[in-house]
């Protein structure tokens, strides 16, 4: 840590909250962020760096003496920014969006500035109550039935992410089930999901002690648009019960990761009610779209679910992190998660103590961020934001479809995710010529090879960033429209780049 | 959601990242925060509000049209701020501090502004590498042995909070143990902690499927300064093994919640190594103090631990949230937590994919915040900050000791937490007079009653905020010095208020 301090350095009192400094530095940082956004469009979306590139540029030890904000920002600019994948770039179409906005940023600033912790109602009453209000607001925006709202006997909470939400509901469902079947039966418990469900459910179930072999991914099929088939679920439950296992949890999805597929909530709900499973609905990405009336039919039957989660930080302009979770019976969750330290004794039943709704004790004041975002933009603009992305995705999908000589849509788009691949026409593979029948056998892998090559070339150009999925024998590209800065011209340009790249590898 | 939009409202394109607006609004919000801090000292630390006070003031539905930032901030000021417990007040001495700073706030602003997600190295390389650098920096600042540093074969990660860190290590230890003893043995696994350990360990262990009766809180004693006794641990392990159980995890603490007690790390470490338990050391609050050489002896023997966690957001000026965790064998953790989605395939062993070091997939860019805090202040100022708080706490403790006619220190202060209670001298309880012998029997509960009354009166005055603990028959007050704004005059004034209030209830 370097040499000892000279007397000079420690002579003045250190004041980490000097308000004049706060004003100067916040201007510096805001200007920096503004410049970052101004130049974002022209930056390579994914950096061309090798592992160790940054570690090797930074000192091995922390500085002993403080440095100026100017020096720090200069290093951010020269060393760090060039090594970032720019999730906010208008040319970022990989994974799912993490959509930022001015209101999201201002909400985060307020959250960090006030820096209160509402783990119990009394530890900061307004923090808890604002969260109660915001989760009810959003429940109504999505047209969730009153049973998921505080005003209707249910309630909600803001977690950091879906895995936290899923983990908490899994634990609640496990404990409720073990109360019924005996607390030595954890090895018998079975979780269901589909082969399209996000791996979060596997991770969460494993974390709460479910045996990996009892986490069952039911196969989905093209004829069901890759939604989980209710009959398959029923058959699996019956078979497992016959084998002495205890089915206890189902995770359905609105907008799966790979394809944006939707599980049939109502039909699945009927099955789980019959067998008394906990039914969680994960709307991490596409749940947000249900603020638009035209998407709300995907939630039909949601009153049969026990819990729902949705990441506002994905598509609702809320910056990282903010995951909504609603429950029909918060009491079941609280029974599982409540743990009392004597100095944290909660109050009456009238008060919500959010420490009992989540994994941790401390928590950020995310509610104020969400409240700022919703108020600043209003439901109307949030709807417009979703519709605009969906319409740009539809435009992109149309362009891909129109180029059917080379491209193929692998799954009909439901939201703002377009899944496509290359279609090779030349019956020449690795220098060998195939006839039609033979060719059908090698085609998927040949198409996959070319599609992967296409994606990698586009990504390494820095002009756009896409991700892909290997599903069975087929590799396809996922193009998500969702960055707050993406305009129609970016989508048109993306398509131009993809076509040019495709021509270069498949002339 | 109100009436339909008029055509006018949706005619202009909605731009959630207008840069002129960003500049204007960030000034508004920064000014708001500055004014908040300017008035913080005079605000009642805990608000006098009743459940429902805020819910009843806010509309039941989200606004359909957007509102201006001025309107929103005016509501924050008039409706929300008066209902907050002000954790950043210089008169806040409850729980543990959640220390803010200008650098912490600027770090959060950069984190939210850049808004990247480094769940794998390749999903934003600089985010991952900066985190590698920062956890190594902090490891060296605490003088942790090289085995916990990336540069020495270990490594670290930034979680949101201690419960996440503990949960991850519990899962890793569980899976490692079950590999050895069989995956049907989860009901046999035993976790050890002391009766002073934070309830997080109970919550975490229950979450990963450990039976509540197998989570064993060993009783601590005054003669060991409420540290966990190594012999008690050994006896418990031996007894449990004889009973067919499988001891697998110990949580030790540096700076317990109630008292700031410290478990004897080296002696406990020797026992756990003998029986091959996972040894986690929780330094949530007082771990930070070990950046000062005079506190580093508490870490003696830390090389015998498997993992260590420390909340920088408590005492290291880092705003919520940031919990450091270091591991000797990251591989064991990764084996337990890795779950692959095909579109998230990680890279070579040279790259750290942080999704496999934590519960969730998405994650905030906390590393840039910590990096800004450490660079802006340097190790020297961070040390000064800790020392200044400790010295103010020592001053407070001295004043309490000097007033031994009425007050009693219940546990010798180690860091910046002072635990004290009232000492009643009048042998009159509920109107009845007692002789000396009889009185010894009723004294603790009488003292506790008065101490609780003292705390509640001070808290309801709004002039300061303290928390208390009921430990056995004794209730005492915890006074933590740690708010970034607290100066000596606040501590002196706090003592004045406490004395006056004590006189009013015990003339």
In short:
The structure is a homodimer of 507-residue chains. Chain A has 507 residues and is an alpha/beta fold. Helix content of chain A is 41%, strand content 13%.
Can you tell me the CATH topology of the largest domain in chain A?
A: Aspartate Aminotransferase, domain 2
CATH architecture of the largest domain in chain A: 3-Layer(aba) Sandwich
- The value of Rg of chain A in angstroms is 25 Å
The CATH superfamily of the largest domain in chain A bears the name: Type I PLP-dependent aspartate aminotransferase-like (Major domain)
What is the overall pLDDT average of chain A? 93
Oligomer status: homodimer
Q: Helix and strand string of chain A, N-terminal first?
A: HHHHEHEHEHEHEEHEHHEEEEHEEH
Classify the secondary structure makeup of chain A into a structural class: alpha/beta
List how many beta strands of chain A DSSP finds.
13
Give an account of the 3D structure.
Chains A, B: One of its GO terms (cellular component) is cytoplasm. Chains A, B: Keywords: Decarboxylase, Lyase, Pyridoxal phosphate. Chains A, B: InterPro entries: Aromatic_deC, PyrdxlP-dep_de-COase, PyrdxlP-dep_Trfase, PyrdxlP-dep_Trfase_major, PyrdxlP-dep_Trfase_small, Pyridoxal-P_BS. Two copies of one chain form a homodimer. The first copy, chain A, is α/β, with parallel strands linked by helices. Chain A has three domains: 20-83, dopa decarboxylase, N-terminal domain, CATH 1.20.1340.10; 116-364, 3-Layer(aba) Sandwich (Aspartate Aminotransferase, domain 2); 379-505, Alpha-Beta Complex (Aspartate Aminotransferase, domain 1). Chain A has helices spanning 19-40, 69-80, 102-114, 125-141, 162-181, 200-207, 230-242, 265-275, 312-315, 330-337, 366-402, 436-461, 488-505, and strands at 155-159, 189-194, 215-218, 246-253, 278-282, 307-311, 323-327, 407-411, 417-422, 428-429, 432-433, 467-471, 474-480. Chain A has a seven-stranded mixed sheet, sandwiched between helices. In chain A, strands 8-9-13-12 form a four-stranded antiparallel sheet. The longest helix of chain A is centred in the C-terminal third of the chain and has 37 residues, at 366-402. The N and C termini of chain A lie far apart (59 Å). Residues 1-11 and 341-347 of chain A have low confidence and may be disordered. The interface between A and B is large, with 165 and 164 residues.
